What does this fold into?
Amino acid sequence: VPKIAARNVSRIYQTVDGDMVAVDDFSLDVTDGEFVCVVGPSGCGKSTFLRMIAGLDTISAGSIQIAPGGVPGKPLNSVVFQEYAIFPWKTVIDNVAFGLEMRGIARKERLETARYWLDRVGLGKFAGYYPHQISGGMKQRVSIVRALANDPEVLLMDEPLGALDAQTRVVLQEELLRIWEETRKTVVYITHSLDEAVLLGDRVILMTAQPGRHLATFDIDLPRP
Ligand code: ADP
Ligand code: ADP
It folds into this structure.
């Protein structure tokens, strides 16, 4: 049973110029514990596809299913976007604990979990800081560990390192790999960088579709060293 089963998925937007096919008959199975990168040029439908997996966009045709893990209350997915969607009025640790707060986890327990994840990315010292007091790379670390602290069935990432400078990006790529090796979380990772896709992914899905014109999808299996 795949962790994520996307079958013949399409997304058609109604625009003033008529129907706009953003994703055209796209299918993808992701195995539990797999790190799948979806790479392709801007506008080929990557974000739309990810939003549909996350339940944040309507599926016009086809279906997407995420297999639940059987742990009650465990969220099916958590999403990390390019722009750190963290709350400016909350401290770093309260941001990381936010998803747990929404699930009604007691304060002591959620702060312990948040603390654990902050320590894992070297942000323990910044727990009491506010987002405006830390760098862009740190803010994106906060977004990433906030998603992981929820312990979702699948982790969905949309260009999570896209807004960072090249040096910070390399550091975060290494951190992501290390965390993935330790957690074996099922990941779908959107990027327009083939370099990044090949570095991070077990499997790279190359979307060469253009709006309204689904050209081809290549599915590349990579050996992990
Ligand atoms: P639908 O009604 O098909 O579910 P949405 O609710 O997502 O579509 O969006 C409503 C309308 O807003 C769309 O039909 C589209 O014309 C416009 N729209 C929303 N987001 C965008 C975007 N990123 N680019 C272009 N048009 C957009
Ligand atoms: P990518 O993530 O690969 O850059 P997107 O999924 O953001 O691509 O967009 C795919 C196509 O769908 C683009 O042509 C985009 O303009 C269009 N699109 C995205 N959202 C909407 C919307 N809400 N309404 C109309 N068109 C949209």
